């Protein structure tokens, strides 16, 4: 049953003030001086964790040295959406290059026990109408999502374009041939007319920088490369039978760990859950999709649902607009809308709306803390598991088995907030709060590189545009783009995701719209006989000026959050935000703006150059 506002306890202004002070205190004790630098990169001696594929063998192939129209870096949701849109724009000669052994990106790599998407599948899984696919339930299992990726690839005939098990190491603009050299770890040197970077924001696992991490002699792996040979079981049937005589520790209590921990608790002899900051964990209320309802939907229903989800999760519900999603992501907006409805929808300024949201936020978080207390038997464990921060400071979770797992006799919560993480690792295990725990296996659910320097995140050694200019140097102090998708000095290169563009609550919607825009620009450039297309400096500067003039300043909220990759690990000196610099007028305003730009048909702000040899031949 969907929750209503009355399911949340009332909180007085005085209680809010006390909670606010507690939130700041909890944040302060977790901010590490070394912020992002606290993590260990999965390169050098840890490269195996990132680079090796434990699931599928790498099939030898010859190096590719020929030409192509487009290289898309990535074959996850983003790379696939770009590919489908490029096909619609008329491109037939392109590659989807990916490190993984199949389509899916994060859904290829992440196979840990319990993996499900935390988002409404009817929004999250793209192209449902085009593929005719009905997700089995509201929150789908990882393998169902990866299978759907394969269905998309087959529907749009993407397999012939795939170059799997291939890591791009170099992208270098060659003015002699007006193409990008795409160098890979498989010895390729592909000469691409266009390049699209579509690798998603969370693709490179990171390790916690625990002193002595390399002295541990037991088994160690990251959740993004689950070792079923060691644990027993397999992706579709995670019966971790080989852990029955093992002592296992897991570092991290984020969205991944919340899904994994119930399985460890069920199968391992002893489990230590090492927590620095607790997640908020609501009831899951997962349910099968009703085929009758699904089949009764009118064309365009998915777009409409995605728009509604975006309003509820990231903006606000309009008067009379229903909440179609009815889950943790939309509860705050739904409750604020109920309040406004009861008052006859008074005019509310953005500040007034934010103030109402804040109160509802405290009420929802109080409900979640009470939920934890009701389920977890041991009062000290329950207290340590309660989240003290605003709702969207960390990714909200829902799971029916997480809290009950702490009532098992073989599961112990190790709270390391006081020492800002695990003190150290030893040959036999780890030390926390002055005590050594001997373990057989350490599992890192320690997340991904998100707000680090791009060269560290992307793992591509060189990306060099005109005159050898490195994108890493060019963007060292922040993005500089035109429409979030192109950059001056980087002809025929396109960027996707969270840069200086619109950010939709449904990622694949962002990727589809960006793919459409990129397909339009690239195909128009070719139709007009151009060999290069690039934003002018003036147009880029004007775009950034406008973007910043409409930006919404949410720094107060972000800075008050407990540290995580959402707020650059609490480092306020660098303005790095998971969503980049999003278009402040809202996602759909951005989409309308770029659609209008396309409709004008002028390619305004872009400079096109044509090949003198081609012109001479004409
Ligand atoms: P996160 O970055 O969210 O969590 C990393 C965890 O490791 C945190 O709990 C962190 O603690 C902890 N940690 C890091 N260093 C240390 C240390 N030295 N000592 C102790 N603990 C430490 O990673 P996840 O893999 O959980 O999630 C990443 C993202 O992946 C999610 O936010 C989400 O976007 C995506 N995801 C999506 C899912 C979906 O359903 N669609 C499911 C799972 C993940 P602290 O919080 O204190 O930093």
From TrEMBL:
Keyword Lyase in annotation: no
Keyword Lipid metabolism: no
Signal peptide: none
Source superkingdom: Bacteria
Pfam families attached to this UniProt entry: Pyr_redox_3
GO molecular function: monooxygenase activity
Cofactor(s) the record lists: FAD
Keywords for this protein: FAD, Flavoprotein, Monooxygenase, NADP, Oxidoreductase
Family: Belongs to the FAD-binding monooxygenase family.
Annotated protein name in UniProt: NAD(P)/FAD-dependent oxidoreductase
Originating species: Stakelama tenebrarum
